[in-house]
Amino acid sequence: MVEQRTENPRVGGSIPPLGTSYFIENITQIAFIDFLCQGAHLGNMNAVTFDTHAFVKRLTAAGMPEPQAEVLAEEQSRLIDTELATKRDIKELELATRRDIKELETVTRRDIKELETANKRNLKELEYRLTVRLGSIATAVGGAVVALVKLL
């Protein structure tokens, strides 16, 4: 089967020309993923242990120059230390989120009760004002009827 090298519009981007080398990128990605699967482990659940020496050895064994492998190992270590969330970090965030949701539920229920109380008070006041107005209207109509009867 011969590859046609046509672009797939669903993927986006263009197909690189034949002979394009991804050697360094592929080594880096494969070695790092493989290393994380085998070499990195969770110590006390607070941090991820990353053996930079073993990582450099694996990269150099795969053909990467040692200075480049050392820089990559240092950068990977920095990223793991500053950006990688552990299971414990995620659990703490989950618990904090649950506490925040519980607190919001409590505050929301209290606010709803306060609104219900205020609405009941406003309805009573409105009922009283309507009763007074209706009484005023009834008195005015009664007075007008009496006046009309006297005139006729």
Description:
This protein has helices at 23-38, 52-61, 66-83, 87-151; strands spanning 41-42, 48-49. A hairpin with a 5-residue loop joins β1 and β2. It is an all-alpha fold. Residues 11-24 and 39-45 have low confidence and may be disordered.
Concise overview:
The protein is built from 4 helices and 2 strands; from the N terminus they run H-E-E-H-H-H. The chain is mainly α and 152 residues long. It has a two-stranded antiparallel ribbon with strand order 1-2.
Defining key terms:
single chain, 152 residues, mainly alpha, two-stranded antiparallel sheet, 2 strands, rod-shaped
Mean pLDDT across the residues is: 78
Strand order of the largest sheet: 1-2
Please identify the structural class as seen in this structure: mainly alpha
Low-confidence stretches: 11-24, 39-45
Oligomer: single chain
* Rg on CA atoms, Å: 38 Å
Query: What percent strand?
Result: under 5%
Distance between the termini: 113 Å
User: Tally of extended strands?
Assistant: 2
Number of helices: 4
Shape: rod-shaped
Main beta sheet: 2 strands, antiparallel
The helicity comes to over 70%
Q: H/E element string?
A: HEEHHH
Provide the fold topology.
Layout: H1 23-38, E1 41-42, E2 48-49, H2 52-61, H3 66-83, H4 87-151
Antiparallel strand pairs: 1-2
Helix pairs in contact: 2-3
